[in-house]
Amino acid sequence: MTVDLDYLKDVLGRTRAEVAKVIIGQDAVVDRALIAILTNNHALIEGVPGVAKTLLVRTLALVLGCDFARIQFTPDLMPSDITGTNVFNLQQNAFTLLKGPIFTTFLLADEINRAPAKTQSALLQAMQERCVTIDRESYALSPNFTVFATQNPIEYEGTYPLPEAQKDRFMLKVNMACPERDDELTLARRMLGSDSPEETLASGAVQPVLTPVELERIREGFRAVTVREELLAYMVDIVRATRMRDSILVGAGPRATQGLLLASRVTAVLDGRDFVTPDDVKEIASAVLTHRLVLRPEYEIEGLTVPEVVQDLLREVAVPR
Ligand SMILES: Nc1ncnc2c1ncn2[C@@H]1O[C@H](COP(=O)(O)OP(=O)(O)OP(=O)(O)O)[C@@H](O)[C@H]1O
Ligand SMILES: [Mg+2]
């Protein structure tokens, strides 16, 4: 299989079209989820209940030919509930592995901040290494293993917020807002008929665009996207600017630079180009940076928000011509 940019554009176009049969609107959200998948990274999804976070990940799994599993994180969830356990098999007179839900390809980690740190870190190790250790034995996960973790933005009570070091392992954060009025109306109409999003997904009307092996291979294709030296410097300067800001207590680390670079290449192809522009970088910067930054409390009290600081930064860092 040759992966040239025309083929990539075609695949992305068909993927978006298949996803759109189920997910109404939310175009930017779909693109960002695709960026995480196509760069072999992981994403945080934030949004109030009922904005189709679960439906989105299920739909992406079907369209990209990948398995899907969901774990609801709770305060009593144990690491072995995620990874699996060895159980004694009387017939075979030996231990056999009962694989946990992490042995999948697209994993939705719902309300990740409801489980204590030890359980969270079982997942984070798997994200980093794409393998899990059970009773000192290592097991490889799918090369396409991708975690989508949700955090409910409203209820913080009784939660264990992800430590900064762990948030850094998510390439980007996707904010899923409530649908636009027109989209909500479309949703309401479809709920009346027999083509509600859920029914459409279950009906077989949505076709896989890729196999898991093809998904693995097409990532190579993004290497052909040109990134000028000045744009590399632009990305580095944006990330470095987060570390020099009075209002920011914790700035972004080098993983953010890596994330910006990889994400901007996919953004370019999603826009039908084979070269990155400053606008690609700007478009993706807040999704890559926001969840990594921590404001100083005194600025937070004044009402400043991280997205505002990121927008200020983007206005100030010199854009290459
Ligand atoms: N943009 C949308 N496109 C299609 N369906 C939508 C959209 N927004 C909401 N829905 C509808 O909302 C329902 C709930 O979606 P889903 O269960 O995926 O939400 P969720 O964000 O995972 O909620 P929760 O946080 O409670 O788990 C879907 O079954 C679908 O009918
Ligand atoms: Mg859900």
Describe the structure in your own words:
The chain is α/β, with parallel strands linked by helices and 321 residues long. It folds into 2 domains: 1-223, P-loop containing nucleotide triphosphate hydrolases (Rossmann fold), CATH 3.40.50; 225-321, Helicase, Ruva Protein, domain 3 (Orthogonal Bundle). It is 45% helix and 15% strand. The protein has helices at 5-20, 27-38, 53-63, 79-83, 117-129, 164-167, 181-192, 197-202, 212-218, 229-241, 254-270, 278-289, 297-301, 306-316; strands at 43-46, 68-72, 84-89, 94-99, 106-110, 131-134, 137-140, 146-151, 172-175, 248-250, 294-295. Strands 2-5-8-1-9 form a 5-stranded parallel β-sheet. Strands 3-4 form a two-stranded antiparallel sheet. α10 crosses α11. The longest helix is centred in the last third of the chain and has 17 residues, at 254-270. The protein is globular. The model has no long low-confidence stretch (mean pLDDT 92). Adenosine-5'-triphosphate (ATP) binds at residues 23-26, 47, 49-55, 179, 183, 187, 196-198.
